[in-house]
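dumping this here so i dont lose it
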């Protein structure tokens, strides 16, 4: 009875099959996971921008003064381009020039939005809200895109009343914005 000890463990063949099955499952799930991450990043960027616009409008009404939202790479000064994915600031625009001056209060500074491209309508590089909550000028459209491509791009549109709504971009808008990724 001395030589009847049973060995515990797995054989090499069992290990190879287990690794092969695991590799197959991982290769099937990775594209779906990547799409989920990209969708999450886009939703996060859209949510952050919507929140900032609402904050600006609420503060403009509460303070009865102009509050501006502008793109900002350093979260302190406005940039003069249409690209917002590097971040933006919300500030009390006491002199109503659409540019942050040293004595103007920053209400919010938002960091870069990874995995997203955000562009405004050409010629409109900032958004302002008056004390009555309205937004002067023509409608301002933000087009948001992620690495999933133009088919998944969305827009946020600010009308003259200062209200923000979601929309679907034109093919020109989505292609131009997604080209920045």
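and the seq i came up w/
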């Amino acid at each position: 009875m001395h030589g009847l000890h049973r060995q515990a463990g797995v054989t090499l063949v069992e290990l190879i099959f287990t690794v092969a099955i695991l590799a197959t499952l991982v290769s099937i799930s990775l594209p779906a996971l990547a799409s989920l991450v990209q969708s999450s990043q886009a939703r996060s960027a859209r949510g952050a921008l919507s929140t900032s616009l609402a904050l600006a409008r609420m503060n403009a009404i509460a303070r009865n003064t102009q509050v501006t939202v502008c793109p900002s790479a350093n979260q302190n000064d406005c940039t003069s381009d249409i690209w917002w994915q590097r971040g933006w600031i919300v500030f009390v625009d006491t002199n109503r020039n659409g540019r942050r001056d040293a004595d103007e209060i920053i209400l919010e500074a938002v960091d870069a939005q990874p995995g997203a491209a955000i562009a405004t309508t050409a010629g409109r590089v900032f958004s302002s809200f008056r004390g009555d909550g309205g937004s002067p000028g023509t409608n301002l459209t933000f087009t948001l895109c992620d690495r999933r491509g133009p088919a998944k791009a969305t827009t946020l549109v600010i009308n003259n009343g200062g209200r923000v709504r979601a929309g679907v971009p034109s093919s020109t808008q989505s292609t131009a914005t997604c080209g920045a990724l």
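The helical segments are 12-63, 171-178.
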